[in-house]
Structure formats: C-alpha cells, structure tokens
Write the structure tokens for this entry.
Amino acid sequence: MARRRLIAGNWKMNGLARDGRALAETVSRGVAALAERAPDVVLCPPATILSAIASVLGQGPVALGGQDCHDEASGAHTGDIAALMLADVGCRYVIVGHSERRQGHNENDARVRAKAKAAHEAGLIAIVCIGETLAERDSGRAFDVVRGQLAGSLPLDAGASNTVVAYEPVWAIGTGRNATAAQVGEAHALIRGELTRRAGDAGNVRILYGGSVKASNAQELLAVDDVDGALVGGASLKADEFLAIVRAGLS
Ligand code: PEP
C-alpha cells in the first residue's frame, strides 16, 4: 500500500505569536495551492503559540503538532504539557524522543515509549525520533543503536495510524551536514525491516528522515527508498524554503 508522504516542521524554541502566525499563514496558503497532490504537512510550533497557530490553520490542509508531551495524563508536573492538552488545543501530532530532549532532558527509551503511549491514548499521532550520535556511527554501532532505540521507544500498539518514526542522525541535526542518500537508504531499510517484524500494520508506519533537510537536498533525500517524508528543523522557519521541501514531496 502506498504511504502518504509527510513533511513536518519543527520550529523548536523559535517564534513569537506575530511572526508565527505570518509563517503559518504563508505555509497554509502554499500547501492549499497544491491541492490534492500535496503531501501531509504538520507544523509543530512552541507550546506558547499553539492556540494562535491553531486559529490560523483552522480547517485548512496543514495539521498542528506539539514538540513534546508528558507521559502522564495530568498531575503535579510543573511546566509540562499532557498529550490531552495538545489534543485539546487542536493538535493531531506530537514529536517525542527528539534528540534534543533525549540529550538535554535525559529522556531514555522507556520514557519516550511512555510518552508515545500517552500520545496514542489522547488520540494523537506520535512522531517518534531515533538516531545515532557521531561517536556511535564512527565506532560502527549506528545500526545497533537505531535498532535498540526503535525497540525501546515504540509502544506495543504502534501502527500506521498512530505512529510515525523519524530517523534523525544526531550529527546531522542543525549542523548543515545531512546524511548521504546511501546512509539514509541503509538506515531506513533497517528500520523498515524492524517495523515489518512487529505486530499488526507496523510495517506500514511512515519513516521520515530528519537532519539538515533543505530545499536544495529535499528532492534527493525524498527519492530514497523507504523515505516517507521529512522532519525539518531550521528550514521550517522560512516559508519559501519549507514550501520548496513540501513541493519536493508532491505525489
Ligand atoms: C530537527 O530538529 O528535527 C531537525 C532535523 O533539525 P534541522 O533540520 O535544523 O537539522
């Protein structure tokens, strides 16, 4: 079965309401102009402006996503956001296990899996990020790491309708240095193989590549087997650049 491409923009800790609204408006208009050939598109702004961006996106073709969620439904977790709160503000997706959370907030696979499970319980699609560091790649352990993170981070109920996997080699994130098409192809083939061994329709989960995707390399990366879309950081903050990546994902 053909998988619909997904282009996700992760704004990270960037964006105040006015600029964010303008960016979302331009992206929404650009995606609408592509009509039914457009891939699925999701914007993940900072939590403070989710509500403002939800109003801009409305019922248009671009979905809203959170950048992280807590693994519990509610409680004494100052500063955290529950998956249900994201759903309440209009999100359809949430990123979990981003390397900046794994490294900067000490999140391990078990935590990421619990967050993905919480996302599913709230009716959200979890974008589960995995990927090796440069040291792990240089020491020949990249595939073991990716295999381990995948097994540890996906909840048992992960399937094509509630989960997206993002392969993001840490050394390619925000560095301007993307993985080569051959490196991406190898990693995605490995991930597809692992997903296929899981229960249900997990073999059909979409796999995104993330790591310095930009207008100039999107076409090549999206053409690689088993690359079902892209998770875009820096380039998602520029409407022209992001829309060019979306167009590279046209069907
Ligand atoms: C990311 O944050 O997930 C990412 C891939 O960032 P960038 O595109 O800036 O490398």
